[in-house]
Amino acid sequence: MSKSIDQILVNAKQWVLSWLAGSPNWVVQVVSSLVNIGVLLIVFLTLFAFMSVLERKILARMQNRYGPNRVGPFGLFQPIADGVKMLIKEDIVPARADKIVHFLAPVLIAAVAILTLGVIPYGRNMTPFTIDGGILFFFAVGSTTELAVFMAGWGSNNKFSMLGAMRAIAQMISYELPLIITVLPVVMVVGSLMPDRIVAAQADYTFGLVPRWFVFTPWGAAAFILFFVSGLVESNRTPFDVPEGESEIVAGHMTEYSGFKYATFFMAEYIGMFAISGLGITLFLGGWHAPMHALEFVPSWVWFFVKLSVLLFVYIWIRGTLPRTRVDQMMNFAWKFMLPMAFTCIVAAAVWHYAGRGLRGWLWSLVVIAVVYTALSMLLDTRRKFAPRVYRFAE
Amino acid sequence: MNSLAFILIAIITLAAALAAATLRSLMHAALSFAIALVGIAAFFFLLGAEFVGLALVFIYIGAVAVLIVFTILLTRRDDGKTRGFNWGGAIIAAAVFGGLIWSILNTQSLAIVAPHMPGLTVKRIGAALMTGYVWPLQCVGLLLTAALIGALILVLEEKR
Could you name the CATH architecture of B1-77? Predict the structure, then answer.
């Protein structure tokens, strides 16, 4: 019973494809891809709609106010109202903008965000597109976002847009490095770039109790935290929303966009957030595996979406808690702390592997990470440079 | 199916390359160049060399195209100016094209039917890099590290 619920979506797709039994092979392939794409779009656009209203509700809760509560029960139909508003708004293109580039930027940024969703395993046998180098595909396609952001900034012919785009690209390039390097220990330990294999490697339980997710090893925990912070930066979320700092540069590269194009940028941002969380789940949080042996009767895709919701809640929580960082602080953090720590994760993973992947390896890799962490924090400690503040009053 | 895809990709790649060479606006030319690179990556996918295609997208679009675009942005002075036909560039392009054609026609191994190759997986590329080509790999790594340190020294604040 539980097995059939687990595979219900896979079987549904097989049933749809069985209608095409007599047609040539390439028709089946194309239809199969189209079904995958359609389901991905429907699921994640719905998730985007509800995420936008949930984010506003949770933020409002944290700031001691109500949040949207007029449209439908508990304000749940708010995204529909927003969508209609965005669709019927006037689309304003600046007179001196580079029309083609201005138009293509939101198209490219949304396309890239949706493409990255395609390689994540959402459940048992539920990877939309199985690619040998799936992880590499994710980052290769994701790196195109920089070009799209640049197109938005340059095509708008506006100094705020350009400044925002420059900031966005600077932070994306800086944090892409720790993001990719924190993925490497997992790839090294598993020995594959394929998301399915990485999930399969985290299948078992130690002592039948603790799942073998990489986040429960010292190097995995450190790498996951670094990965999550880099993911925050890559999706331009608070506290790293410097590119669109409203109080400084209006809305960054989105300044000259209105109506549906503006909504497209937001959609791309949220979908990028889903994708990077999905990748984090695949790499460190055991993918679609259940956290306990007794809970394996729950379908695998439910576990994936439970983990995704937890991560998304943390995203919102951080947004409600932390103020925006300064540009220079963020860059210093990337190059002086994140990057050395990311390299340390690789070393710690190697130590873990060669010490036998058991308790001994666990402790040794913890030692490696603790030593480097302490040394780095002592080196980077700038507190002693400041004297107590001296107040000068007009006399 | 494959030949149809080949023709489609070839048309897009050639059109983008032509646009990159002829467009008035330097920025449009750079962006068309990026499209041409996507086309070339698509060829690698068509040939089953996933890793090479992905690396091409990763390096050339994620890094090189952004670098080109930034260079144009930071050095742009020729707004509205039209320049004459660049004969030097045309001669160099023709020479490179001729050289390529000459070397392709003179390659012996093209005439022989290739033996059936097993799939070019990431694992095999990694094994090759770590055994036969480990010295070139290390040299490239050293060079890149030196370049990184050089870049850091260039932007380092001078201490008074």
Answer: Up-down Bundle (1.20)
